[in-house]
Amino acid sequence: MSQPGQQNPLPQAGQSVPQQQYAPQGQPYPPQGQPYPMPGHQPYPPGPQWGPPPRSGRGGIIALVVVLVVVVLGGGGAGGYFLFGADSSDDGPVVDASRDLAEAPMGCGLFTEAEIAPLIPGKFTTEPTAIFGGNKDYENSAQCMYSNQGIATGGLPTAFLSVTTRLHKAGPRESGLDKAKEDLRRKTGSPVGVPGADDDKFREIESSRNRVVAAEISVLYRNVVITMHYTHYALGEKQFTQPLLGMSIVAIDKL
Question: Which tens digit of pLDDT belongs to each residue from 155-167?
Answer without folding.
Answer: 999 999 999 999 9
